[in-house]
Write a structure and sequence with these properties.
- The complex is a heterodimer of chains A (about 400) and B (about 350).
- With about 400 residues, chain A is of the alpha+beta class.
- Chain A has 3 domains: about 1-130 and about 375-394, no CATH class; about 135-235 and about 325-375, Alpha-Beta Plaits (2-Layer Sandwich); about 245-315, Double Stranded RNA Binding Domain.
- Chain A has 13 helices and 11 strands.
- In chain A, the strands form 2 sheets. An 8-stranded mixed sheet of chain A has the order 2-3-1-5-4-9-10-11.
- Chain A is elongated and about 100 Å long.
- Residues about 1-40 of chain A have low confidence and may be disordered.
- Chain B has 2 domains: about 1-115, no CATH class; about 130-355, Vaccinia Virus protein VP39 (Rossmann fold).
- Chain B has a 7-stranded mixed sheet with strand order 5-4-3-6-7-9-8, with helices on both faces. In chain B, strands 1-2 form a two-stranded antiparallel sheet.
- In chain B, strand 4, helix 11 and strand 5 (about 230-235) form a beta-alpha-beta unit.
- In chain B, helix 3 (about 30-45) packs antiparallel against helix 4 (about 50-65).
- Classes of the chains: A alpha+beta (about 400), B alpha/beta (about 350).
- At the A-B interface, helix 8, strand 2 and helix 10 of A face helix 5, helix 6, strand 1 and helix 9 of B.
- Chain B: This is peptide chain release factor N(5)-glutamine methyltransferase.
- Chain B: It catalyses: L-glutaminyl-[peptide chain release factor] + S-adenosyl-L-methionine = N(5)-methyl-L-glutaminyl-[peptide chain release factor] + S-adenosyl-L-homocysteine + H(+).
- Chain B: GO terms for molecular function: nucleic acid binding; peptide chain release factor N(5)-glutamine methyltransferase activity; protein-glutamine N-methyltransferase activity.
- Chain B: InterPro entries: DNA_methylase_N6_adenine_CS, HemK-like, N5-glutamine_MTase, PrmC_N, SAM-dependent_MTases_sf, Small_mtfrase_dom.
Chain lengths: ~400, ~350
């Protein structure tokens, strides 16, 4: 039921967008008052029920056992009190006989409203669940899909786009694998991307990207549809994931015989097998073998971490439109339609024009990614609320 | 010779200032077979235009036909180098598809001609990577091997361990972070070990010695290219010489590191042509038991090393046992093997020796 509610109230994205604006600490309080989205969200009976429930729960057990429960309950209580205060003051402003008092009440109302907006903003921040991967760096893998050489050409263009986007965001972009095709396309590549909020933002790029255009290789001017896939793997830190070195089989080009000074080989490719899972990674980007090994381990760690996260998330099935991990990977998320000069993201039904500019990996791509982030935040909040609603009804 | 009338061959033939040389090789008929395939391949592409991938497989075939070791890798490294990349896998789509210019094809050909004479790829390119560094390589200065990267990692790990607060306090007051270790490298060659240590340990200082003047000059040149010359003192010095006092510009040293010549003399004849014909054999030949220089270093360690200082050596897999025995017979040196480590092939390759206080 709640979900239906969310969908209907969400038809326009402005709603989600306003939600994201609250995240930004620098936005002034005044701004919130003019956010219709805020009022709408707080008008949802589900949210009201959720906040009530938080308070009840807190009364039942003093130490808030639930995540952020007690802080949230406190905020909800303060919000309720402020709203009552506002109601009283409004009555005062309307009905009091003394004009000075009415004026005073009116100024009071403005303060009240500002405080309410701030409280609501804080409640929202509590509701957006934080994730272990929020601060992570990532490894991006791109793979060409349906469409032969044209798909590979598109994959190369997409890889360039993300490389430029990383530069635009001031992130580090380190290519780990790169398997080009003969005519300048790209079969497969991976890169390590590191920087502020890199994973948080890039995670929405995972999925199937579709291109519609007349390929360079097409002689009769027909429009083809081809695909490529992006996978975004969060990079674990030392604490998130530990690997027992004994579980790794590191394969290198072994020299026959004595090794060391006796031979001079140049092949420095490294392949690593994680024996318990059979996961394999390899690197031959570098002339230094030890650097290839370090990069191969980095890839392997990201793959294993991703598996671990997926195991965890499989347990909590979600119906979100924006999925990360394997669930999102097989989904067609975006279409690049060249004849119409349009890029459409199917998850949020958002279209932008000027493909070439979009594929420069600057403002247009960034706006799309921000919109997705905002929508994902909104969905996350709705999920928290609806989950709790379901438990309550049960 | 009929096969050589393939378009690519004609192209290469006309371009090459090395015609004469290649001609000799081809005349032997070695490369006939690959050209059959090439003929088919190139009939599809426009005459005169070659891409990186095509060039790589062409030269791979030529190398294979001439029994050049690592034919594929050699061809890839050379083609990538001409395109300004380090490996074929690191070429991006942008520079892999365009056709090679005449000059570039010429350059590839010149470099491949050197490789055909069994020159090691590292000398052909004039540079190679070691750990995080790209170093200039010049014959006959010894080319650093893959195993030696692990030797550097061992020392760096050990240094980090020492600096952890929880380390045992045999050395009660560790110098502050701004005073890193003083390291002596014996037989610096191209400077690979010394310079990557300086890079990884920002407060360290290194004295690097070599008996070959070309090596001393190359280490100096590499140090300057990497802007590390301030913290390294490169000296032309024979380890067996009796005057060692001037090796102590910064006092006794914390660590001695070396990849000394350790090949048993009788094994020298089995070395590949690449090594035999191009590298300074003095950097490899360790005498009848491969220990000539190892013994010199251990003698020197006794004078130059601080108490509890370490010696790290890359050795032959038979050496760890031999060195242990030898040290037992020389208790006056106050040195003891405190660790052995295997290389990536699982061979005993590295020795960690420590000096105990007297």
């Amino acid at each position: 039921m709640v979900f239906g509610l969310a969908r209907s109230s969400l038809r326009c994205l402005g709603f989600a967008r306003s939600l994201a604006r609250w995240r930004k600490p620098k936005s002034t309080r005044r701004l919130f008052c003019s956010q219709p989205g805020l009022q709408d969200l707080f008008a949802l009976p589900a949210l009201q029920r959720f906040l009530d429930q938080q308070q009840e729960e807190e009364q039942r057990q003093e130490a808030g056992a639930r995540r952020g429960g007690s802080a949230l309950a406190a905020l909800a209580r303060r919000l309720r009190r402020k709203e009552e205060e506002l109601g009283d003051t409004e009555r005062l402003a309307r009905e009091d006989e003394n004009e000075d008092l009415r004026k005073l009440a009116e100024t009071e109302i403005v303060f009240c409203q500002e405080e309410i907006a701030e409280l609501k903003r804080q409640i929202m921040l509590h509701l957006i669940p934080s994730e272990e991967t929020d601060e992570s760096d990532l490894i991006m893998e791109v793979t060409s899909g349906v469409g032969g050489q044209e798909a590979m050409l598109f994959t190369a263009e997409m890889f360039d786009m993300y490389q430029q986007y990383a530069a635009y965001k001031n992130w580090n972009f380190d290519i780990l694998e790169y398997a080009p095709s003969d005519i300048g396309g790209l079969r497969y590549a991976s890169a390590a991307i590191a920087g502020h909020e890199a994973y948080r933002q890039m995670k929405f790029e995972g999925g199937v990207h579709r291109v519609q255009r007349v390929p360079k290789t097409e002689k009769q001017g027909r429009i083809h549809t081809s695909t490529m896939t992006v996978a975004i793997l969060p990079q674990p830190n030392e604490i998130n994931l530990t690997i027992n070195p004994k579980e790794l089989r590191i394969e290198t080009k072994r020299a026959s015989g004595a090794g060391g000074q006796h031979v001079n080989t140049t092949d420095s490719a490294v392949r690593i097998l994680h024996i318990p899972t059979g996961v394999v990674s390899e690197c031959q980007q570098e002339r230094s073998q030890i650097k290839n090994k370090a990069k191969a381990i980095q890839i392997l760690r990201a793959k294993l971490y991703n598996m671990k996260l997926e195991d965890e998330s499989r347990k909590r099935e979600t119906a979100r439109k924006i999925q990360t991990g394997t669930k999102g990977r097989s989904e067609k998320i975006r279409t690049y339609n060249f004849p119409q000069d349009r890029v459409t993201d199917h998850r949020i039904s958002r279209s932008v024009h000027h493909i070439e500019q979009f594929m420069l990996g600057e403002e247009l791509l960034d706006e799309m990614i921000q919109a997705l982030g905002e929508y994902a935040d909104f969905e996350a909040v709705m999920e928290v609320i609806s989950e709790s609603d379901l438990t309550r009804l049960r | 010779m009929t096969v050589f009338y393939s378009s690519l061959w004609r192209k290469l033939w006309c371009l090459s200032p090395y015609c004469g040389h290649l001609g000799v090789i081809f005349a032997r008929g070695c490369v006939l077979h690959p050209c059959h395939r090439l003929l088919r391949q190139y009939s599809h592409s426009k005459a005169g235009l070659v891409t990186a991938a095509e060039l790589v497989s062409y030269w791979q075939d030529v190398f294979e036909a001439n029994e050049i070791p690592e034919a594929r890798a050699s061809s890839e490294y050379i083609v990538s180098y001409v395109l300004g990349a380090k490996t074929f896998q690191s070429l991006n789509a942008g520079n892999i598809s365009p056709y090679f210019s005449v000059q570039q094809q010429e350059q590839v050909e010149q470099l491949c001609a050197k490789r055909l004479q069994r020159m090691p790829v590292q000398y052909v390119l004039g540079e190679w990577d070691f750990q995080d560094l790209t170093l200039k390589m010049k014959p006959p200065v010894f080319i650093p091997r893959r195993e030696t990267e692990e030797l550097v990692t061992l020392v760096v790990d050990e240094e980090c361990r020492k600096r952890l607060p929880s380390s045992d306090c045999k050395e009660p007051r560790l110098p502050p972070e701004t005073h890193g270790p003083v390291i002596l490298e014996v037989g610096c060659g191209s400077g690979a070990i010394a310079l990557s240590l300086l890079k990884k340990l920002p407060h360290s200082k290194v004295i690097a010695i070599d008996k070959l003047e070309a090596a001393v000059n190359l280490t100096k040149e590499n140090a300057e290219r990497l802007n590390l010359q301030e913290r390294v003192s490169v000296l032309h010095h024979e380890v067996s010489s009796s005057s060692w006092k001037y090796l102590l510009p910064w006092g006794l040293v914390d660590t001695i590191i070396s990849n000394p010549p350790y090949v048993f003399h009788e094994d020298m004849t089995h070395l590949a042509t690449e090594i035999h014909s191009y590298e300074d054999l003095g950097a490899l030949d360790g005498g009848s038991d491969g220990m000539n220089i190892i013994r010199e270093i251990l003698h020197l360690a006794c004078y130059l090393l601080k108490d509890y200082g370490s010696v790290f050596l890359e050795v032959e897999p038979r050496h760890p046992e031999m060195v242990k025995n030898w040290l037992r017979g020389h208790p006056d040196l106050s040195l003891v093997v405190c660790g052995t480590h295997k290389d990536f092939c699982g061979k005993l390759r590295f020795l960690h020796i420590q000096k105990h206080g007297r």
